[in-house]
Design goal:
The complex is a heterodimer of chains A (about 425) and B (about 950).
Chain A lengths: L1 H10 L11 E10 L5 E10 L2 E6 L8 E4 L4 E4 L1 E6 L37 H6 L3 E6 L6 E9 L5 H4 E11 L22 H31 L10 H10 L5 E5 L2 H13 L4 E5 L7 H6 L4 E3 L15 H12 L3 E3 L14 H10 L4 H6 L3 H6 L17 E4 L10 E6 L2 E3 L4 H10 L5
Parallel strand pairs in A: 1-4, 1-5, 6-7, 9-10, 10-11, 11-12, 12-13
Antiparallel strand pairs in A: 1-2, 2-3, 5-14, 7-8, 8-9, 14-15, 15-16
Chain B lengths: L1 H11 L17 E12 L2 E11 L2 E6 L9 E4 L4 E4 L1 E7 L56 H4 L4 H9 L2 E7 L5 E9 L5 H4 E11 L13 H27 L11 H10 L7 E4 L3 H14 L4 E4 L8 H5 L5 E4 L19 H9 L3 H7 L4 E4 L8 H11 L4 H8 L1 H6 L17 E4 L11 E6 L2 E4 L12 H21 L18 E10 L6 E10 L2 E7 L10 E4 L4 E4 L1 E6 L30 H6 L3 E6 L7 E9 L6 H4 L6 E6 L23 H21 L10 H10 L3 E7 L2 H13 L6 E4 L7 H7 L2 E4 L17 H7 L4 E3 L10 H10 L5 H6 L3 H6 L17 E4 L10 E6 L2 E5 L3 H23 L9 H6 L24
Parallel strand pairs in B: 1-4, 1-5, 6-7, 9-10, 10-11, 11-12, 12-13, 17-20, 17-21, 22-23, 25-26, 26-27, 27-28, 28-29
Antiparallel strand pairs in B: 1-2, 2-3, 5-14, 7-8, 8-9, 14-15, 15-16, 17-18, 18-19, 21-30, 23-24, 24-25, 30-31, 31-32
Helix pairs in contact in B: 5-6, 9-25, 17-18, 17-19
C-alpha cells in the first residue's frame, strides 16, 4: 500500500491519500450525467482513470467504495477561454505571459508557458474546474491553444490536447468619432472613411493570410524533393488549420464583427466557435444555421446600447439556446479573467434565472465546452468510456452556497486545498485576544 | 508716426471734427432713415417709421418723426429695421466651448498627474503649479485679474462675419480656465479699440472646466467646484485681511498682495456687484451652479447653456437665472456605410433631434434667454439654426428680445442698447421686407454708432425658361416636405419612462418570506405593511387586514428583503472619480458631481440596490468627500442625496497612493512608500487640529477659511466618517493607530483584503469592514486576499459588509452576500445583512434603512425566490414606499426605447440621405458624436476605480 501510494504520488503531485485505488465505486449519489438524465441514488464506477459504468446500481466490486449519501456528482467543469496559468498577478507585468506582439503568429503555442504551480489553478479546481483552455492573446491570428488538465507535474502532464484551436481576433468595426483637434494623438487621427478603409484592409489581410497558407500547402506538396523544401514555421503551424484539423476560435463581440466573421468562416468552410460573443443574441439564427457554438463571456457585461433591456446579456444564453446555439460559459481574458474562473458557474446560474433551462446551464459548463474544444470523446459528461474527471458537491453547482467536497481528474483524486484555504486555516487559528 | 500722433489728439479732443490732410474726411453725422418697417422693441412695430440719428445716437423715431434739414436721407422703403443685434458671449480665439472636465479627449488615463504635486494650500509637491507669471492666485486656471479690456483688439474678420449676420455689438468674454477674468463690451464696427470699447469689466467669467494641464490641480470636475469655492472664500478673506491691516499696520504681520483676489472684489461687492457669467458645460452642472450661487452669493448671474437643457427642463426651471443660449446644433454626419448607423446611440439621436428645440424648452421653463453665436463652427449657420429653433416653438418676439433687449440688460447696457429709442446708440440691423427670421430674407445693412455698414444688394437671378419651372416646383415641394419633417420632434423626453412607477398611500404585501434583518429574523408567511413611505408592520401573518386604499401584493412563494445597500460605488459620478493631483483633496466633494442621468441607476435598481455610497477614488491618501444617495431614478442630483446620512470622506493606503503602478514618471509626490502614508496623515491632522483650535479661539487677524482643513476638522469632531481603502495588514494597523492618536474612530476600512489577519484589532477599534466578497489576483497587494475574509472578520466581531466597487457587481450584491455562506459558513440571515443592515450601520444610516422594521423607510425588494440562490430574480424594487422597478414592465420599456431609436433613424435617413447633412458645417457634423457629460460612461468612471491602474 505504502509503495503504491508513493509511486502514484510521484506521478501525481496533488493526489489525495486514498485516491490511489485502481478502481473506485461511488454509490448513493445524485449523478448529473449532463448528456443524459440526472440519476438519483445512483452509482458510478471508475477503473483505470476512466468511467467504467454509470447506473442505478452497479454490481461490480471495486478497490475503493465511497458512499455519497445523497451528494451530487458533476462532470468536471471546463473553462474554454481563459488566461489561467498564463497570468499570475494581473498588475505585475513580470507575471503576465498572455499577449504577444505582432499581428500574425499562428506558431505561438499557449501551452508551453502555463505555470503548473500557479496559485490560480488550485483555486479554480476548488470550485469544480478540472480543465481549461488557456489562450494566447495579441494581434489578429494570435496563436494556438491547448486543453489542459488543472493538475500535473509539468506542462506535458497538463496538456491533454495540444493545438485545440487557432485564435483569430476579428478586426473591430467600431468607428472612432473623436474630432481631430480632440484626438489624443492628432497625427494618428483618421476620418470615418479612412477608418473603414483601414478595417477593410485588415479584413483582406486576414483573408489573404489564409490564402497564403493554402498556397504554401500547395507548394509544399508540389515540391519534387521534400527534403529540399524550406519550411516556414508560421506557415507550418497553419497547415493543420488549412487541412481542417484544427478549428478556429474567432473572437468577436460586436454584431457587425460577428456577421462578418460568420460569413467568412462559412465561405472558407472552416470549423469555428465564436468566442466573446457579446452581441451573439442578436444574430442567434445566423449562428444556429451555421452551427457555430458560442463561448459566451458577457452574462455580466452591462448592456452595450442604451436601448438594450437591462437583462439583455443575462437572457442572451437563453435566446441563443432557443435558437439552437450551444452556449459555453467563460469569464474571458480580462484582468479578472484568470482569478475569476471559479465564479463562471454563477454566470450560468444567472442565465438560468433569465430563461436558460437548467440542463443547458450545466452543459454550458461541461459538455458544450468539451465539444467546442474537440474533447467531448473524453470529457464533459458522466458516461462510460470517458475520463473520470468529476467532482462531488453538496448541492447544485449553480447554487452559490454549494460546497465542492472532492474532485477527481482522470481517476485521480486531487486536493481542494489552495493558497486561500491555507491562509484561512492559518488565521482561523490565530489566538483570540 | 504722424497718424499716431494725430490719432491721440483726436481721441483727446472730441470737438476736433476736421482731420488733417491725408485722412479721409469724416462723413456728416446726421441721418434720417425713412420708409422702413421698424421694430422699436421686440413687441412694438411701426409699418412706416422714420429714424433720425445724430452723432451716433438716436434722436427721434416713429411715424411722426421730423427729418432734420441737415440730415442725409436714407430710403429704406420696404425694408425692416431692428435694434442692432447683440451677441452676449463672444469669445477670444476659438469659438468652441471649452470642454468640461473629463470629456472624451481626456478619457485616456495616461497622464494622470505630473511628477510631484502642485503647490496648494500648504501641501507642497516638488513641481508646483507655477500659476501664471507675476502675482496671482497660484493656479494657472484661476485668473480673475485678467481683463479683456486690457488686451482687446478688434478682430476685423470676426467682426465682419458677425455684421454680415446682423450683429452690431458683443460681450467679449475670456474662455480659458475656471475663474477666467473680466469681460468687455464692444461695438462690432471699424475703428480704434478705444472707440469700440463700450464698457470694461462687465462681468467675471467662470467655467466648470479644467481646460489646462491634466497634471495640475484640479483635473476633475469636483476639483473645479472646490477651487471656485475656495477662491471665493479667499477673496472674502482677502478683503477682511487687507482692511484689518489698513487699520493697524504696525500691529500685525503684513498680508501679501494678491492681484487675483483683489480683482474678485468687484464680484463680491455688496453694492453695484459685478455679475458672473457661468459656463457650467452640462445641464446637471447648470443645477450645480444654482446651488453654488446660493452658497457663494452669486446673485447677479447668467448661465451659458450647454445646449442640453432639454434633458432636465425641471432643473432648468429652478435655475433662477437668465441663459445665454448657443444655437450650435449637431448635424447628421456622413457615414462610410449604412452599417455605421449601428454605432449610433439613442442618446446621440435624441441630442440631434432635440437640439433645435432647446431655446423653446428654456422659454417654456420660464427662463429668459439671449442668443449667441458662441459654439458655432461656422457663424453663417446662425440664421439657419435660429430658423430651426423658431420652427420648434420659439416665438419671433422672444427671438428678437433674445437678440436685443435681453442681452443688453444682461450686459448692463439696457440704457444704451437693445431698442430703437431716442437717446440710445444708433445700432441697427436692417433686412429686406421678409425680415430677419425668414430664411429668404436678405441682410441689407447694419448701423453701428450711427455709421452704416451696407452689404452688397443681392443680384436678381435671371429669369429662366419655363420648363425649369416644374423641376423647381418639385424641388421646392421636396424642401417644404423635409422642413415639415424636421419640425416634428420624434425623440421622447429623457424623463419619459423613467422614475417612480407607483406611489400608493399604502402597500400590503401578504404571505411572503420576509428577511427582516431585525430580531424577527427570517419570517415565513409574513406580512409587510407600508404606509406613507415607512414600514409599519413586518412580521408573522396575524389577524391583520390592509388599510383602505392599500395596494395589496400577493407575496406567496416570494421573498422580500430590505433594499440592498452598496457601501462603495462610483456609478453615479460626473467628470472624474479621482482628483488625482494632490496628496490631500479633502476639499473636493462627490456631492457636487452626482450624476442623476446615468443608466446605472436603472440597472442597479433592477438588481435590488436602493442606496449607494458614492466614493472618491483612491489616488491619494486623503481623498474627497463622499455622498450617500438613494436610487430614486428620475430625481435630480440634489433630490437623490440621502439627507440624513452623515458626511463621509475617502482615504486610501498602499499601492495606489504611493503611485506604485502609475508609471515611471510618478516618483516624486509624497508619499512614495507605505511608511510615508501615516507620516502624511499625521501632518494633515496636526494641521487640522491647529485650524480647529484657531477657529475656537479666533486670533486678532481674520482667519482664512480652508476647505481642506475644515473637512479634516469635521473628522476630528466625529462629524465625518472615514472610508479608507486598505489592503495589507501592516498598513491597516498603522492607519488605525494613527487615527486613534487623534481620537478618531474610522468609519469603514474599504476592500480590506488582509483585514482577516487583524480582525481582532479592527473589532477592537470599532471600524466597519466593507470588503470585496472574493476579488483577488489583480495586483500585488492582493496576494493574500481570500474569499473567507468576510466570514472570518464577522466571526471575530467586526461589522462586515460586501460592496461592489463596480457598476456590474452593484446589480447583484445579494449574490456577493451568498459568498459569505459559501466561504466560511456565515449563517444566511447574517450573510444578507452584509449587503443590507451592516452597510447601513457603517454609513450611519441604520436608523432609517437596512432592515424591515416599523418606522424605517420602506426600501424593499421582492425576489422570485431565495435571495441568496443565484437562480433568483429581482421582481420589484421599492424606495420610500414607491415602486421604482418592476420586471413585468421591462419589456414594454425596452420596446419603447428601441422603437424610438428606429423612428429617429428613419427620420435621420430621410432628412439627410446617405451623404449626411450637406448644408451643415464640419463642426456641426462632428458635434453629432459628442456625448453629454452625463452619458460619458466610456470615460473610465464606471468600474473598480480602486484596483485599476494605468499600464
Amino acid at each position: 500500500m505504502f509503495t503504491t501510494r508513493l509511486l502514484l504520488a510521484a506521478l501525481w503531485p496533488l493526489a489525495v491519500g486514498s485516491a490511489c485505488a485502481a478502481s473506485l465505486l461511488l454509490t448513493g449519489g445524485v449523478l448529473h450525467t449532463v448528456s443524459g438524465p440526472t440519476l438519483t441514488n445512483a452509482s458510478l464506477l471508475v477503473r483505470d482513470g476512466k468511467i467504467a459504468a454509470v447506473g442505478q446500481s452497479i454490481a461490480e466490486a471495486a478497490d475503493q467504495k465511497i458512499d455519497l449519501k445523497g451528494q451530487h456528482v458533476f462532470p468536471g467543469l471546463i473553462a474554454p477561454m481563459t488566461v489561467l496559468g498564463l497570468q499570475e498577478i494581473d498588475g505585475v507585468r513580470a507575471t503576465r505571459d498572455t499577449t504577444e506582439s505582432g499581428d500574425f503568429h499562428p506558431d505561438v503555442l499557449s501551452w508551453v508557458s502555463v505555470n503548473p504551480d500557479s496559485e490560480l489553478l488550485p483555486v479554480a479546481r476548488a470550485n469544480g474546474y478540472t480543465h481549461a483552455q488557456p489562450i494566447p492573446l495579441g494581434g489578429v491570428v494570435s496563436g494556438q491553444s491547448a486543453v489542459i488538465a488543472l493538475a500535473g507535474w509539468t506542462i506535458e502532464d497538463l496538456t491533454i490536447k495540444p493545438a485545440a484551436a487557432l485564435h483569430v481576433f476579428w478586426p473591430s468595426f467600431a468607428l472612432d468619432t473623436t474630432p481631430k483637434e480632440r484626438a489624443p494623438n492628432p497625427a494618428n487621427w483618421k476620418s470615418l472613411e479612412d477608418q473603414t478603409k483601414a478595417r477593410d484592409k485588415k479584413l483582406r489581410e486576414l483573408d489573404e493570410f489564409f490564402n497564403e497558407a493554402e498556397a504554401y500547402a500547395k507548394a509544399k506538396s508540389a515540391a519534387k524533393d521534400p527534403n529540399a523544401f524550406k519550411p516556414v514555421p508560421a506557415w507550418e503551424a497553419m497547415q493543420p488549420v488549412v487541412r481542417g484539423e484544427v478549428p478556429l476560435n474567432v473572437h468577436a463581440d460586436e454584431v457587425r464583427q460577428i456577421r462578418s466573421a460568420v460569413e467568412w468562416v462559412t465561405q472558407r468552410k472552416l470549423k469555428a466557435a465564436l468566442a466573446g460573443g457579446r452581441d451573439a443574441w442578436r444574430v442567434a439564427d445566423l449562428l444556429a444555421t451555421n452551427r457555430i457554438p458560442v463561448l459566451f463571456e458577457h452574462v455580466f457585461t452591462q448592456p452595450a446600447r442604451d436601448t438594450d433591456p437591462y437583462d439583455a446579456h443575462y437572457a442572451a444564453p437563453a435566446v441563443l439556446a432557443r435558437a439552437g446555439v450551444k452556449v459555453s460559459f467563460t469569464d474571458g481574458t480580462d484582468r479578472f479573467g484568470a482569478s475569476n474562473v471559479r465564479n463562471v458557474p454563477y454566470a450560468a446560474a444567472q442565465a438560468m434565472a433569465f430563461g436558460l433551462p437548467r440542463e443547458e446551464a450545466w452543459r454550458g459548463l461541461t459538455l458544450y465546452p468539451a465539444e467546442a474544444l474537440g474533447v467531448a470523446d473524453r470529457l464533459g459528461s458522466l458516461e462510460a468510456g470517458k475520463e473520470a474527471s468529476f467532482f462531488v458537491a453538496d448541492g447544485d453547482i449553480l447554487d452559490l452556497r454549494t460546497q465542492v467536497k472532492r474532485l477527481w481528474i482522470a481517476g485521480q483524486e486531487v486536493s481542494l486545498e489552495s493558497r486561500h484555504t491555507r491562509l484561512y486555516d492559518k488565521y482561523r487559528a490565530r489566538p483570540k485576544p | 508716426m504722424l497718424r499716431a500722433v494725430f490719432g491721440l489728439v483726436l481721441v483727446a479732443t472730441a470737438w476736433a471734427q476736421i482731420d488733417p490732410p491725408g485722412f479721409r474726411p469724416r462723413p456728416p453725422a446726421t441721418h434720417a432713415l425713412v420708409g422702413a418697417r421698424v421694430f422699436t422693441k421686440p413687441d412694438t412695430v411701426f409699418s412706416n417709421a422714420i429714424i433720425v440719428i445724430r452723432d451716433g445716437r438716436i434722436l427721434q423715431v416713429g411715424p411722426e418723426a421730423k427729418v432734420p434739414a441737415d440730415a442725409r436721407v436714407w430710403d429704406y422703403s420696404g425694408q425692416t429695421i431692428y435694434a442692432g443685434f447683440i451677441d452676449p458671449y463672444l469669445t477670444l480665439g476659438t469659438n468652441q466651448p471649452v470642454t468640461t472636465a473629463a470629456t472624451e479627449a481626456r478619457a485616456g488615463r495616461t497622464d494622470f498627474t505630473a511628477a510631484g504635486g502642485p503647490r496648494f494650500f500648504g501641501v507642497a509637491g516638488q513641481e508646483p503649479d507655477p500659476g501664471t507669471p507675476g502675482p496671482g492666485y497660484g493656479l494657472a486656471e484661476v485668473t480673475p485679474e485678467k481683463r479683456v479690456a486690457a488686451i482687446f483688439a478688434a478682430d476685423t474678420k470676426v467682426f465682419e462675419a458677425l455684421r454680415e449676420i446682423g450683429f452690431t455689438s458683443a460681450h467679449w468674454v475670456p474662455t480659458k480656465g475656471i475663474l477666467r477674468g473680466q469681460s468687455a463690451f464692444v461695438q462690432l464696427g471699424e475703428g480704434s479699440p478705444n472707440d469700440l470699447l463700450l464698457r470694461a469689466d462687465v462681468a467675471q467669467c467662470l467655467g466648470f472646466s479644467t481646460g489646462g494641464r491634466d497634471d495640475a490641480y484640479p483635473n476633475s470636475l469636483m476639483g473645479v467646484l472646490a477651487v471656485l469655492r475656495q477662491a471665493w472664500f479667499d477673496a472674502q478673506h482677502y478683503a477682511a485681511d487687507q482692511a484689518d491691516y489698513a487699520k493697524r499696520p504696525g500691529d500685525r504681520k503684513r498680508p501679501a498682495f494678491n492681484a487675483a483676489l483683489a480683482a474678485l472684489q468687484a464680484a463680491l461687492s455688496p453694492t453695484n456687484r459685478q455679475p458672473v457669467f457661468i459656463e457650467p458645460g452640462s445641464v446637471l452642472m447648470t443645477d450645480r451652479a444654482r446651488v453654488l450661487a446660493g452658497e457663494l452669493g452669486w446673485t447677479e448671474r447668467v448661465i451659458v447653456s450647454s445646449g442640453d437643457d432639454w434633458r432636465r427642463p425641471d432643473l432648468v426651471a429652478q435655475a433662477g437665472a437668465p441663459f445665454v443660449v448657443p444655437v450650435a446644433f449637431p448635424a447628421l454626419p456622413k457615414f462610410p456605410d449604412d452599417d455605421a448607423w449601428e454605432s449610433v446611440s439613442l442618446d446621440q439621436l435624441r441630442s440631434w433631434d432635440w437640439a433645435p428645440e432647446n431655446p423653446a424648452v428654456l422659454r417654456r421653463a420660464g427662463r429668459e434667454i439671449a442668443l449667441t453665436t458662441y459654439a458655432l463652427g461656422d457663424r453663417k449657420e446662425f440664421r439657419k439654426n435660429l430658423r430651426a429653433a423658431l420652427d420648434r416653438g420659439l416665438s419671433e418676439t422672444d427671438a428678437l428680445a433674445a437678440l436685443t433687449t435681453v442681452p443688453a440688460r444682461l450686459c448692463g447696457l439696457a440704457d444704451r442698447l437693445g431698442t430703437i429709442e431716442p437717446g440710445k446708440l444708433a445700432n441697427l440691423t436692417i433686412t429686406d421686407s421678409k425680415g430677419y427670421f425668414d430664411p429668404e430674407g436678405k441682410l441689407r445693412a447694419v448701423w453701428i454708432d450711427g455709421r452704416p455698414y451696407e452689404f452688397e444688394p443681392a443680384k436678381t437671378p435671371l429669369a429662366k425658361a419655363d420648363d425649369d419651372k416644374a423641376a423647381k416646383e418639385k424641388a421646392e415641394k421636396k424642401k417644404t416636405e423635409l422642413r415639415e419633417l424636421a419640425k416634428r420632434r420624434v425623440a421622447r423626453r429623457p424623463l419619459d419612462g423613467r422614475g417612480m412607477l407607483t406611489n400608493p398611500p399604502a402597500v400590503f404585501l401578504m404571505g411572503a418570506t420576509l428577511w427582516t434583518g431585525s430580531s424577527n429574523g427570517i419570517v415565513r408567511n409574513g406580512n409587510l405593511l407600508v404606509e406613507k413611505g415607512k414600514v409599519t408592520f413586518a412580521s408573522q401573518m396575524e389577524l391583520y387586514s390592509p388599510p383602505l386604499g392599500a395596494l395589496v401584493i400577493d407575496g406567496v412563494g416570494l421573498h422580500v428583503t430590505p433594499g440592498i445597500l452598496d457601501a462603495h460605488s462610483h456609478s453615479m459620478i460626473l467628470g472624474g472619480v479621482n482628483e488625482a493631483t494632490l496628496p490631500s483633496t479633502a476639499m473636493v466633494r462627490i456631492g457636487d458631481v452626482v450624476n442623476s442621468e446615468t443608466d446605472n441607476l436603472h440597472q442597479q435598481l433592477a438588481g435590488g440596490t436602493t442606496a449607494v455610497n458614492l466614493l472618491h477614488g483612491s489616488a491619494n491618501p486623503i481623498g474627497g468627500q463622499s455622498q450617500v444617495i438613494k436610487l430614486r431614478d428620475g430625481d435630480g442630483p440634489e433630490e437623490l442625496k440621502f439627507k440624513p446620512a452623515p458626511g463621509g470622506i475617502k482615504f486610501a493606503l498602499g499601492e495606489n497612493v504611493k503611485q506604485a503602478n502609475w508609471g515611471e514618471k510618478y516618483t516624486t509626490r509624497f508619499p512614495q512608500t507605505r511608511m510615508g502614508v501615516p507620516t502624511f496623515m499625521r501632518n494633515r491632522f496636526t494641521a487640522a487640529q491647529q485650524y480647529r483650535d484657531a477657529l475656537k479661539a479666533p486670533t486678532a487677524e481674520p482667519l482664512r477659511r480652508d476647505l481642506e482643513l475644515e473637512a479634516l476638522a469635521e473628522i476630528l469632531a466625529g462629524q465625518r466618517l472615514i472610508h479608507c481603502h486598505s489592503y495589507r495588514q501592516d498598513e491597516i494597523l498603522a492607519f488605525l493607530r494613527t487615527m486613534e492618536s487623534f481620537g478618531v474612530r474610522v468609519g469603514t476600512l474599504q476592500h480590506i483584503l488582509e483585514g482577516y489577519k487583524v480582525a481582532d484589532e479592527i473589532a477592537q477599534h470599532g471600524a466597519g469592514a466593507s470588503a470585496f466578497a472574493d476579488w483577488w489576483g489583480y495586483k500585488f497587494e492582493v496576494i493574500d486576499a481570500i474569499p473567507y475574509a468576510g466570514s472570518l472578520m464577522h466571526a471575530r466581531g467586526v461589522n462586515v459588509s460586501f460592496n461592489s466597487d463596480s457598476s456590474d457587481h452593484a446589480r447583484r450584491l445579494n449574490f456577493e452576500a451568498a459568498k459569505a455562506v459559501k466561504y466560511g459558513g456565515t449563517p444566511e440571515a447574517e450573510a444578507l445583512k452584509f449587503v443590507t443592515l451592516n452597510p447601513a450601520k457603517q454609513l450611519g444610516i441604520d436608523h432609517w434603512v437596512g432592515s424591515l422594521e416599523p418606522g424605517k423607510d420602506a426600501d424593499f425588494v421582492l425576489w422570485s425566490g431565495h435571495p441568496l440562490d443565484s437562480g433568483s430574480v429581482c421582481l420589484q424594487t421599492w424606495i420610500d414606499g414607491k415602486k421604482y422597478f418592476d420586471r413585468a414592465l421591462e419589456p414594454a420599456r425596452a420596446k419603447a426605447l428601441a422603437d424610438e431609436r428606429t423612428a429617429l433613424i428613419a427620420k435621420a435617413k430621410k432628412l439627410a440621405g446617405e451623404g449626411g447633412d450637406a448644408t451643415a458645417s464640419d463642426k456641426a457634423r462632428e458635434k453629432f458624436f459628442q456625448r453629454a457629460l452625463e452619458h460619458a460612461v466610456h470615460l473610465g468612471v464606471v468600474n473598480c476605480q480602486d484596483c485599476e491602474m494605468p499600464r
